[in-house]
Specification:
It is a single chain. The protein is of the alpha/beta class and 293 residues long. The protein has one domain: Rossmann fold. The chain is 30% helix and 25% strand. It is built from ten helices and ten strands. It has helices spanning 78-84, 115-121, 136-146, 153-163, 167-170, 183-195, 213-226, 239-245, 272-277, 282-288, and strands at 38-49, 52-63, 67-71, 95-103, 106-107, 122-125, 201-205, 231-235, 248-256, 262-271. The chain has a ten-stranded mixed β-sheet, sandwiched between helices.
């Protein structure tokens, strides 16, 4: 899968249990290491804002059709890290990214790569639902329209809403405003909007933090279904959620240098079951047992 360089044609040419506190660790159907298709290769990633180091020393691989959770205390750079995966940090004044991020073997930050195309291939769902002030239909159709993917638009909208487990709830009110939906429905609408442009990857930055337990459970069930077709990376403060839904977990923490500057750093990355039952670093154990963070 080649990333379309700047100046190339449009993306349309590229096919691409509420209340429970008991974590369900790992997937029952994990592939052996040698069988995993690596989507992202990340090596020595560091991010600076205005020269100040925000995140450093991130090296890990993210595999296809897995859910990778990113956990850690507030301020450790979880959101900064995930935004490197679709070049959202390019939109932040003064932000610079160092190191290597390969997507399907290609350098995501190569100057020939179009950042807008990257963001179509690698969609993002944000912390709070953010539907456009448009109809449900137009929310989902927005991406395909601006990317000139107008062929069979009705089918595209239905497919995206079905994949987001929302079609049955809204199929008779597609002309109504997306803002009239409940919080959980709005978040699934935003997921449908991201899926409508046929991404390879779905990034989710605290997607359940503003939702009640029932809506959270719906999103978690949805993620489990979506990973059959998509690679998912989720940032979460909820460790039970990470343990329930993810196949692998990355733990970041905050370190303070001699000058008092704080920056995030990857401590450990492994299968979720290993992270939550036999972590290799005492800092990981301290965080997941609640001793800090």
């Amino acid at each position: 899968m080649t990333i379309i360089p700047t100046g190339s044609r449009s993306m349309s040419e590229v096919t691409t249990t509420p209340g429970s506190t008991e974590p369900v660790l790992g997937s029952e159907h994990e592939l052996p290491e040698e069988a995993r298709e690596i989507v992202f290769e990340i090596r020595n990633l560091a991010v600076r804002y205005g020269g100040a180091l925000a995140v450093r020393d991130v090296t890990l691989d993210i595999a296809a059709n897995e859910i990778t959770a990113v956990i850690g205390p507030s301020g450790c750079g979880k959101s900064t890290f995930i935004r490197c995966l679709n070049r959202m940090n390019d939109l932040v004044a003064g932000a610079t990214v160092e190191g290597l991020v390969r997507f399907h073997g290609e350098d995501l930050y190569d100057q020939r790569v179009d950042p807008a195309t990257v963001r179509r291939r690698i969609g993002m769902v944000f912390q709070r639902p953010n539907p456009f002030p448009k109809s449900i239909y137009d929310n989902v159709a927005y991406g395909p329209r601006i990317n000139k993917m107008k062929h069979n638009l009705d089918e595209t909208v239905e497919r995206a809403l079905t994949h987001a487990a929302l079609w049955d709830e809204v199929k008779d009110k597609l002309k109504k405003s997306g803002l009239a939906l409940s919080g959980g429905q709005q978040q699934r609408l935003c997921i449908a909007r991201a899926l409508a442009v046929q991404p390879d990857v779905l990034l989710m930055d605290e997607p359940c933090s503003a939702l009640d337990p029932i809506a959270t459970a719906r999103i978690e069930d949805l993620m489990e279904d979506l990973k059959r077709e998509y690679t998912i990376v989720i940032v979460t403060h909820n460790m039970q959620q990470a343990a329930r839904v993810s196949d692998r977990t990355a733990f970041l923490t905050t370190e303070v240098d001699d000058s008092g500057h704080r920056s995030g750093r990857l401590v450990e990355f492994d299968r979720t079951a290993t992270i939550f039952t036999h972590p290799s670093d005492p800092r990981t154990e301290g965080y997941i047992t609640g001793r800090f963070g």
